[in-house]
């Protein structure tokens, strides 16, 4: 309770970037029996998802054009555009942002990859019968569930 009140006061008295620099998470790794310290350097929790005035995705944000594709067909966020031609030509990318010039419908089914600070597994890949992760690692499902839920 005291810690929550102290954190609440610090949250509003100190600037967000100062709290971000102080944030270090200690994880206990049961496999190696060592303490690992990781910093939040791969994903910034204070980074906004969309610009507050234009409501467009921020560069390197969660809904970035580079991760999921362009919003409009063949138009990059910087304004560059190319006509989408034959697929035989190969993929074309924006030189400034690195966005691929493709159809905007690709955002509906293209999956993104965001590097997190600690390993995470999705429950669909773990609990589905047969389990994809268990088959891939050739381990029994009960052993993997114990590892994922830190019961080992």
Automatic annotation (TrEMBL):
<keyword id="KW-0548">Nucleotidyltransferase</keyword>
<dbReference type="Pfam" id="PF04997">
    <property type="entry name" value="RNA_pol_Rpb1_1"/>
</dbReference>
<keyword id="KW-0240">DNA-directed RNA polymerase</keyword>
<dbReference type="GO" id="GO:0003899">
    <property type="term" value="F:DNA-directed RNA polymerase activity"/>
</dbReference>
<keyword id="KW-0804">Transcription</keyword>
<dbReference type="InterPro" id="IPR044893">
    <property type="entry name" value="RNA_pol_Rpb1_clamp_domain"/>
</dbReference>
<dbReference type="GO" id="GO:0000428">
    <property type="term" value="C:DNA-directed RNA polymerase complex"/>
</dbReference>
<protein>
    <recommendedName>
        <fullName>DNA-directed RNA polymerase</fullName>
        <ecNumber>2.7.7.6</ecNumber>
    </recommendedName>
</protein>
<dbReference type="GO" id="GO:0003677">
    <property type="term" value="F:DNA binding"/>
</dbReference>
<dbReference type="InterPro" id="IPR007080">
    <property type="entry name" value="RNA_pol_Rpb1_1"/>
</dbReference>
<feature type="domain" description="RNA polymerase Rpb1">
    <location>
        <begin position="49"/>
        <end position="135"/>
    </location>
</feature>
<dbReference type="GO" id="GO:0006351">
    <property type="term" value="P:DNA-templated transcription"/>
</dbReference>
<keyword id="KW-0808">Transferase</keyword>
